[in-house]
Design brief:
Length: 766
Amino acid sequence: MDSDHDVVMGDGLPLTSGNLEIQEGTVVRDSSMSLDVDVQGSVHLNNQTVEGGSKSASASASASTAADTAHSLPKPNLEVTKMDRLDELSNYVYSDDDDSDYSFDEEHAFLPKASLPSGLCYDPRMRYHCEVRPESDVHPEDPRRIYYIYKELCKAGLVDDPTSTRPLVKQPLQRIDARDATSEEIVMVHTPEHLRFVKSTQHMTEDELKYLEDTRDSIYFNNLTLMSSLLSCGGAIETCRAVLQGKVKNAIGVIRPPGHHAEKAKTMGFCVFNNVCVATKVCQKEFGEKCRKILILDWDVHHGNGTQQAFYDDPNVLYMSIHVFRNGTFYPGGDEGDYDHCGSGNGLGRNVNIPWPLQGMGDGDYLYAFQQVIMPIAYEFDPDFVIISAGFDAAAGDELGGCFVTPPCYAHMTHMLMNLAGGKVAVCLEGGYNFKSISKSALAVTRTLMGEPPDRLSNVTASKLAVETVELVKREQSKYWQCLYPKPVPPTFYGHRLHDVLRQYQTKVLYDEFKMTNLYIYRDSISESFRNEVLATPDYDEKKPLLLIFHDPPELMGLSDPVTNQMETHNAWIADVVKDYIGWARENDYAVIDANIPKHFTGETKNKNEAGEYEPEDRARANKSEYLAKYLWENYIEPNDATDVFFLGIGEAFAGLTSLLINIERVYSRVSGVISLVADNPVRSVASNTNAWLSKWYKDNSMVLVWEGHLMWRTQKLSKRYGRVQRSPKGTLNEMLAHHKQQICDFIQERIGTSEDLEESESQES
């Protein structure tokens, strides 16, 4: 650089009168050299002033040594009005050895990818696949699904369509032509026999097609099914190819029939060919190393069993699915969608399932899963390309899915995925059966693809079920991904589960203080958790009030090491407020039966392996609780002389007591009162088809304390089958027990003798 004529800016470009004009009232500032140029033509370099005689500010080599006392004062914003030599700048930004996929031109000089349009694949011929003899007006997989989405995009001004009346956005969606997938492409995923079967449907009679619909798994056919299915599969391929070829920055394929349930040799779940799987295989073959690692993110409310099957042992395809599992009873059923199905062989760890235990999940749950599992793993995998299997049946308003994901949430999830693979993202429609829900959701996703920021979210709090499920997934997947913590406990250090140890401690304390001993419970299986499960005072069979307590295990609070997962004993505490209630009962000469309902029954897990595996709350827990309640009633309570029986249900353990009230007649005639404490567990109802007034009795004789933040308070009117519900300001069971102790004790005291009054009135009526 010639120091007599040029002053260099921070990016390496010379600042001269030839390449930059400085207007009246502007200051150019360069942080790397403390360079200011003001309108009088002075250059302030490293706090020294260089005088210049021209407002075009060609810097002179002579520099004044006078300090610029005003240098630290606020300056006007930089305003650059003209770049005269754009070609010179382009040579600097893009060197000859640049391997960019995008050619340089003036219009797209600085944002080569963002300046590209987003793509849209839609073909009305995909609607020709329909039922031959509809049995109802509306089938969930209605051909109009894609039409409503397309029209929503047109109404928003995103599509240059002759029927669109709204003004177009500046850069509308670029159309991507669908085509038929070839036989060679189809058999990259499906068997030749599967393809031959689908081809045969174009020549079948209506009776034959109806027979297939009746005998196969959730699928219908007509003579045009083959055409629509090949177009749907080919549309997915072309949607992905357009992105990888650099024709569009990203794209959405509004295609049907969907595909993620279709297995190698089986049509099912409204799916004929697995569109995304075929597109993945085709792109890997065509683009080679440029598209070797592919992430498939499936947010359809149903598990994509076909996609999982296709890539279960493939190390180059990461399949991640967020879906309702419901203990394997939600479609497609079975245990393949559970959290512990992580791939096999070279693909171990390349399959990630986030299985919601129930329907009703919402924005906060999905975002929590994204932030805790999806995105950390995706960043570590570092894909070359991202495909979203975009089913919108988890959307709010879709009755089949039963979840509450809003359009802004879909937009936020899309936005996060766009940070991967250099923004190369293709969205392919899967399920979604409410026209309004899928249209609004698809619009939100498309606007995000086009560069519009996602709308704000109203509720981002994850539910307890979501946090527990995500924790399960993290602990399982942490075996395969460095980004996830905590790591599993080494099996060699495994000892005894702490909930069993704590119950042994409780047994000793309750015996020492109240002489409580074990009640024998017959079981058809053996578990360490059954020992000391039920403890009773010596007078449980005498003629006096009896308090029957069904409670969750005592809460364990502690701080574990975030990396090693070890917990020091001095950093752990147990909170057991139930003992205070037992003490109060004994002071008032009540008998007590205390039933501890474990959240996990040692030795009864499906893994049969107690080597330090983290276990969720036992899925058959409610059944065990119901069995125990029935056994206690028939063997230890009903045959004996207790004058008043009070049920105290704490947490999820209350399920056994509600079952007792519903299923065994005349239980309520011996029960003087029912107390239930609900933090974030479900509120149990008491209602019977054979006893119409049971719900009224329950409301008149119950106290149900529910945390004020519980979802049930969103209901405008509470049914009497939930009992006499009251708000509690406390959010944990121990806090509720402590806060409401006097209220609960008064309730019990006031109701002594009510069961005898009820029996008297019933005998008089008879």
